[in-house]
Amino acid sequence: MHLLRLLSLASVLLPFSALAAEEEWPEFRGPQQQGISNAKNVPTKWGADDNVAWKVEVPGKGWSSPSLSGGKIYLTSAIGEPSTGVTLHALCLDAKDGHTLWDTELFKPDDATAAAMHRKNSLASPTPIVADGRVYVHFGHMGTAALDLAGKVLWKQTELKYAPVHGAGGSPTLYQGELIFSCDAAQNPFVVGLDAATGKVRWKTPRNTTAKKPFSFSTPLVITVEGKPQVISPGSGFVGGYDPTDGHEIWRVRYGEGYSVIPRPVYAQGLLFVSSCFDRPVLYAIRPEGAKGDATDTAIAWSLNKGAPHTPSALVLGDEVYVVSDAGIATCADAKTGTVHWTQRLPGNYSASPVAAEGRIYFQNETGIGTVIKAGTKFEELGTNTMGEPTLATPAVADNTLYLRGEKHLWRIGK
C-alpha cells in the first residue's frame, strides 16, 4: 500500500514538475541562453486585443527582456529623465495577472553618468538573471546589484568605473558563483568576473584590442570545450575565449575593425556563431576546440556576409542556423557548412533576438509586429501578429504563453 501511494503521488507530481521546469526563462535568451524553449502550446496568433491574457503598464523606461522564474517576472526600469533626475529599479511582477509584487530602487546616477545613450538604447537594457534564490541586475557603468526574491538588496557594486559609448547594453552571465560581463567602453575595455555572493571583483582582464573603436555591447556565453569551461565574449576587433577561474584569455579570433558588437554568441554543432560588427557585420562560425592564442587563421569554419545581423543574436535549431538582419532579411543556412537554404524579407526593422518553441521561430520587430515561421529548409510563414506598441526587447517563452515587453507595457500573450 505504501508503494502504491508513492506511485500515485509521483503520477501527480511529475506533470507538475515538468510544467514548472518549462515555466523557467531566467535570463536573456532563456534557460540555455540560446533562445530555445521546451514550452508547449506557445501562441502563434495574437493582436492588440486578441489572445492577450493581460497587459500592464511598466513604470519608467527600459529595454531589458523579461526574466521568468517561479511564476514571477523580473524586469529593470529607469524612472525619470537624466536632465531632471533618474532612478534605476528592479521590479517583480506576478505572472498570473501582472500586478507588481515589489519595486526596489537601486541607483541614482548623476546627469553626466546617465546622459551618454543611443536613441534606441535605455538606461535599463541588460536583462536580469534569476538563480539560486537571487536576482542579479546590471546597469553597466552605473552599477550592478543582487537582491533576494523578496526584493531586499544583498549587495551593490559601483567600483567599476568606465566611460561607455551609447550606454549599457550587454547582460551578464552567471557561472559557478561568478557574475561575468563585458565593459567595452570608449577606452581601456575589459571583461570582469564578480563574486556572485558579495559583488567583489575576482578578476578583470583587459581586452588588448587594436580596434580604433573599442566599444561593444555583447552578452558573454559560457560553454564547455574539451571538458573545460570557457567564457565566450565578443568585443571590438575580436571574439575571445576566457578561463572563468581567473579570466585569462585562452584564444581569440580577429575580425578587423569590427566594433559595436551586440549579438550574444550561440554554440551548437561544435561551432560558435558570432556576428562581427555594426557597420558591415559578418556572421562567423568558429571552432573553439583546439583554439589557442591567435586562432584567426585556423578556427573559422565558414562565414556569411549577406544578411548578417548587427543587433539580433543568431538561433540554431537542429541542423540549421537562423538569423535576421536589423533591416529584416531573415536567412536560414546549414549550421555546419554555411550553405544558405533561403532568405526572406520580414516586415520592419529588428533589434530583438529570435526565439524558438515547438519547431517554430518567433521574430519580433521594432514596431511590435511578430512573425512566426516553421523551422526548416523551406520558408513557411505561420502568422504575422501586431501588438500595436514598439518593442526592442527579446520575448520570454513559457507554456501557453509569450511575454512581450513594449515601450510602455508588459504583455502576456495566450490564455
Describe this structure in words.
The chain has 415 residues and is mainly beta. The chain has a single domain (30-413), classed as Methylamine Dehydrogenase, Chain H, CATH 2.130.10. The chain contains three helices and 34 strands. The chain has helices at 2-22, 111-115, 296-299; strands at residues 36-37, 52-57, 67-69, 72-81, 85-94, 100-107, 129-131, 134-138, 144-148, 153-157, 173-175, 178-183, 190-195, 201-206, 221-225, 228-234, 238-242, 249-254, 266-268, 271-275, 283-286, 293-294, 300-304, 315-317, 320-324, 329-334, 340-345, 355-357, 360-364, 369-374, 381-386, 396-398, 401-405, 409-413. A hairpin with a 2-residue loop joins strand 32 and strand 33 (401-405). The longest helix has 21 residues, at 2-22. The two termini are 40 Å apart. The model is unreliable at 1-22 (pLDDT under 50).
